[in-house]
Amino acid sequence: MKKGYETEFNTYLKEYPDQRGYFGQYGGAHLPPQLIPAFEEITEAYQTICHSAQFISELRRIRREFQGRPTPVYHCERLSRMLGTTQIYLKREDLNHTGAHKLNHCMGEGLLAKFMGKKKIIAETGAGQHGVALATAAAYFGLECDIYMGEVDIAKQAPNVSRMKILGANVIPVTHGLKTLKEAVDAAFEGYMQEYEDAIYCIGSVVGPHPFPLMVRDFQMIVGIEAKDQFIDMTGMLPDAVVACVGGGSNAIGMFSAFLNEPVEIYGVEPMGKGPDMGNNAASITFGEKGIMHGFESIMLKDSSGNPAPVYSVASGLDYPSVGPEHAFLHELGRVKYDSVSDEEAVEAFFKLSRYEGIIPALESSHGVAYAMKLAKEKKHSAILVNLSGRGDKDMDYVIEHYGYGEQYK
């Protein structure tokens, strides 16, 4: 779809997903029999309260008084000048309470859990931002909280592990497989199967069985809605391009949804990691094929046996072997262009944004910044809006250990 976004996408958000949770050929709910009633209960509850004025009013109050929304849009004047004539802007989700976009859907999921009478929320986490956000929601709503996290990510993201524990969450190390995000999701599903009557599984992205890709998108849409209005207020026009990193894809869907019906180029940025060989990256759309994992059908990276392939990224929140079904659909439609940047490019952007603008980004968000920097060198006299999905406090120990203080990027 190269033209006519305003006519081709004007009913998109109402049409997709369909009642079975499909975005075209992607999505659905592929579940073991014992979990089908549990997810039907979640779907029914969400479809009920999402149209409730009381629920919407309470969520807006939480966003305003607890999360500190709206987060601002910021013009990177010095970084833009260094790159040329194109202007880079950031949607500052790093200033959302807990330091990332994740709290947007976690507070919604916590409110849903209270409505359903659940006592516990269960989740996985990679970079730890979803875990921190859900632990925060659990503390706010008075719920128990189990967070499953791979041992590799626990070591990489120690500050976030400490934050989760201080907030009262039970952090459960995952010690099998590659000990990263995919295994954490496996373990969280297993834990949920034992407690689904009293607990709710709060998925950390626009992945998993229906209704989670829909539900998380709905909660994250506030990012794009705010950003579009703020950008127009600042400049009097729309950006030429919108950019966000994509692992599972929650921050990207939140940003993209407001611009699908506008004459704006949209770019999703996957992690190329160390290179194109299997196990060195997590670029699912770039190298994947259709498959089913964790209860949904999408594009996924597969090994020679057809199982989820090993993945890697310097950013723990991006090393997942699949992608949200809506991203697979938007790729198929051609509305969003999905590309990638390497570890090295992301780390360079991490230091450049820190040095030129005084903003230390999350390594996940650094992928989006890196791609915007590349676009800025290609485009003249344009404006690029990046979703800075999180702050980099959690990554500093890891970056310093492996890259020093960035002298090589001056």
Write a brief structural summary.
With 410 residues, the chain is an alpha/beta fold.
Describe the structure.
- The structure is a single chain.
- The protein is α/β, with parallel strands linked by helices and 410 residues long.
- It has 2 domains: 28-64 and 102-212, Rossmann fold; 68-99 and 215-409, 3-Layer(aba) Sandwich (Rossmann fold), CATH 3.40.50.1100.
- The protein is built from 17 helices and 14 strands.
- The chain has helices at 5-8, 12-15, 36-49, 53-67, 77-83, 103-116, 129-141, 151-156, 158-166, 181-195, 212-235, 250-256, 284-287, 325-333, 343-357, 363-378, 396-403; strands at 22-23, 26-27, 73-75, 87-92, 120-125, 144-150, 170-174, 199-201, 241-245, 265-273, 289-293, 296-300, 337-342, 383-388.
- The strands form 4 sheets. It has a 6-stranded mixed sheet, sandwiched between helices. The chain has a 4-stranded parallel sheet with strand order 7-6-5-8, with helices on both faces. The chain has a two-stranded antiparallel sheet with strand order 1-2.
- Helix 12 links the parallel strand 9 (241-245) and strand 10.
- Helix 7 packs parallel to helix 9 (158-166).
- The longest helix is centred in the middle third of the chain and has 24 residues, at 212-235.
- The N and C termini lie far apart (40 Å).
- 57% of the residues are buried.
